[in-house]
Every structure is written in C-alpha cells, then in structure tokens.
Design brief:
Layout: H1 2-17, H2 19-35, H3 37-46, H4 52-56, E1 65-67, E2 72-78, H5 88-91, H6 97-100, E3 111-113, H7 121-130, H8 142-148, H9 159-165, E4 169-174, H10 183-188, E5 194-196, H11 198-204, H12 218-235, E6 239-244, H13 257-262, H14 267-287, E7 294-300, H15 310-314, E8 323-326, E9 337-339, H16 343-350, E10 353-355, E11 359-360, E12 363-364, H17 377-384, H18 390-393
Helix pairs in contact: 12-14
C-alpha cells in the first residue's frame, strides 16, 4: 500500500512539473468522451473488415415494388416498450393490457430481438425505416452525431422515400425537439413533409408548463394525432402518420398530470398509462371505421434501458421488443423471430407494397411467402454487423 502511494505521489509531482503533459492527457480524455473519438477510430480502422453488409444489403433503389391495394399507415413507436411489462409474475398484472387486448385481432412476432446498432431511439428509427444499423461515421457518436450532420443517410432509400414515390404523404409527430439526435433531419431527408416536435407545439399554443423535460406528453401527442388523422382521412389520399412517444423514457419516466391523477407517478403506472393511451388511439381509429383504409403498427423502439424497475426486467429469462400489426385483414406470418431491419419490408408488405424477393435493406419480410431469413444468419449478423463497410459508409 505504501509503495502504491509513493508511485501516485511521484506521478502527481511529475504532472505538476509538466503541466503541458497533464493538459494534453486531459484533452485526449475529454475529446474521447465528448466526441467519441475512440469509438470512431475503432469503427473506421480497427473493427475487422467484413463483406457481411455487402453480401446481405438489398438496396431499395434497385428493387421493383409491386403494389396491391395499398393502404395508409399509422406507425407508433413507443419508447422502451418491451413484452416483459406484460408479465404478471413480475409486475403483478399485465401493464400492457390496454394494448394486448388487440393482439387477438392482429399479428405480432414474439421473438423481436435487438441487434447491435439499433439499441437506442434514433438507431431504431434508422433500422426499421431504412433496414440498416446506425454506426458512428463522425467523431461524434450516438445522439450527438445526428445533431451535427447536415445530411442523414442521404444516399439510402428508406421507408419515407419509398412511400412518397408511391403517392403517400408522410407526417411525423413526437413530443421532444426535432433537433434531438437529428430526428427531424432524418425524417426531413427521407420525404416526410410535415414534422412536429417541441418547438412546433409551443407555436401551436402549448406551454412549457404543459410539458415534461422532453416536451409534449404522450396523451397530448395522441390528442394531436387524432386531429391530424381526421385531416389526412379527409384528403382521401394515401398517408403515413408516424408517432414517437416519450413518457416511458428512463430513469423515472415522465407521466402527465392526467396519468398521475389516475394512479401515481411510479414507473409501472406510467408504462400502463402510455399503453392505455396507445390502445385508446387504436380504438378511436376502429370506431371511426378507418381500418378499411388504414393499417396500424405499434413498435417498441428498443428494450428498456435503466429505469426504476430495471432489475425486474432483467429477471425475465427472455426480453423481447413489443410489436403489433393491426388490419381489417390480419397477415399470416412466416416466423416469430425478427429484428429491427425486418420491419422495413414487413411494414411495407403489410400495407400492400412488396418486392418479389420479400427483402429490403438487411431485412426479410416476416409475412412474405417468398423469403425467410436463414436461422444461422442472425448469429452472423450479431458478430459482423459492426464491421467496417465501405458500402455502408457510402449511404451517408
């Protein structure tokens, strides 16, 4: 112990005498943390070069899409929603009962797994909309990367681009600022015409006191979604209304006043409240008789991160991402094992837009009769999806 103290004391003396060295070390450490330099360097130079992406990526630009009675789409991403919340053995009740009541009328994939490059919100949006992971391509990483770039996967053809090409009007609505993680830039660059976030809600008359730290609460978001839906239906044209919730974000959640008044602000009640609000929006669409024109897809964006009940979530032997496809004519599925990349071709095919091969991006349609992912390919994907790929970088 004394020897270690002596070594530390000598090191401190050395750093005091050589302040420029200390400053340099501090600068390197700070830059590595702030700008993800280490991760960027590993991504670009030290990860093994693999042909996985080149061999498996089906570029939508080169695909012919077959159109058969296309329907409009309401796509709802629910923050951190996973199937574990439905387990009464863990939470004493099914926290997602307000949503699960519709499972008997729809289609869901019980083994929706999370892959590298899809584990946070903007990465999940990229995976499910473009069929590719989100990798570090700048010295900025994760959410920060999206906030500093001027173009977001501008050479990739994604869901919004495909739908716009076939006459759809794309609309995105969420509670937080569109600047966060480059969410607004991403949707803008991929043919979403109308975008709504915190600043837009403030302009519309909402006050900061009506909002959480992030922005508009989920119940107000769904209230605005109903108004927008009525407008879109009235236009009598194909549309895609994409929503993204926020109240179930960790650590403590951000329940609205109405949710707190209903029970309290403990995290399980916030999850239950958001699930009920999604269920009410589904019920509203059904009651209006719109399911003959509109399909509904509900997706957890990723598995829950650290929150008040994370130890309970970890006690589950199998954690999978929540998903639900609703239509007046439910689809038949070819598998229960899916990943985020599969959602792009699966969602497109569910609304009547498909490729002959049933594949787009890195994804396989889970309802196609012509394509099914080889079982062994998932382990290969898990191991190699992070590898350097010139083809992937060219999508930026």
């Amino acid at each position: 112990m004394t020897s270690n103290r002596c070594k530390i004391s000598k090191m401190l003396v050395l750093l005091r005498r050589n302040s420029h060295i200390a400053l340099l070390i501090f600068g390197v450490v700070f830059a590595s943390y702030q700008f993800s330099v280490c991760h960027y360097l590993k991504q670009q130079f030290f990860y093994s070069s693999s042909k996985f992406f080149e061999h498996n990526y089906i570029d939508p630009k080169n695909q012919h899409f077959e159109i058969n009675k296309p329907k409009s789409l309401v796509l709802i991403y629910v923050e951190s929603l996973e199937n574990t919340y439905s387990n009464p053995a863990i939470f004493g009740r099914d926290l997602l009962s307000g949503l699960n009541v519709y499972k008997r009328q729809g289609t869901s994939f019980d083994k929706y797994q999370m892959m590298p490059g899809t584990e946070w919100t903007i990465a999940s949006l990229v995976a499910t909309q473009c069929g590719v992971p989100l990798k570090t391509v700048t010295v900025f990483g994760n959410n920060r990367q999206g906030e500093v770039i001027t173009k977001f996967l501008s050479n990739a053809k994604c869901m919004g681009d495909i739908l716009a090409e076939h006459g759809y009007k794309n609309v995105f609505m969420n509670g937080p600022s569109l600047k966060f993680a480059g969410v607004g830039q991403f949707f803008k660059d991929h043919h979403y015409e109308s975008l709504y976030g915190k600043d837009e809600w403030l302009l519309k008359g909402y006050r900061l006191t009506d909002m959480s730290f992030w922005g508009l609460h989920d119940d107000d978001l769904f209230k605005e979604a109903k108004i927008k839906l009525a407008e879109l239906i009235k236009e009598n044209k194909l549309f895609n209304l994409t929503l993204l919730t926020i109240d179930t974000h960790g650590m403590d959640g951000y329940p609205s006043k109405a949710c707190i008044a209903r029970k309290d602000k403990r995290f399980p009640n916030t999850v239950e409240c958001t699930a009920d609000n999604v269920g009410k929006l589904i019920s509203y669409i059904k009651e209006q008789g719109w399911l003959n024109k509109v399909n509904i897809v509900v997706l957890g964006d990723h598995l829950a991160m650290k929150n008040q009940v994370y130890t309970k979530l970890e006690s589950s032997p199998s954690r999978t991402i929540y998903n639900l496809f609703l239509s007046n004519k439910p689809s038949s599925k070819n598998t229960n094992m899916v990943v985020g990349f599969d959602m792009l071709p699966t969602i497109l095919e569910s609304i009547g837009i498909k490729t002959k091969a049933g594949r787009v991006g890195l994804g396989y349609s889970a309802i196609s009769t012509s394509a099914k992912r080889p079982a062994q390919s998932l382990s290969e994907m898990q191991n190699e999806i992070g590898s350097y790929s010139k083809t992937y970088n060219q999508l930026w």
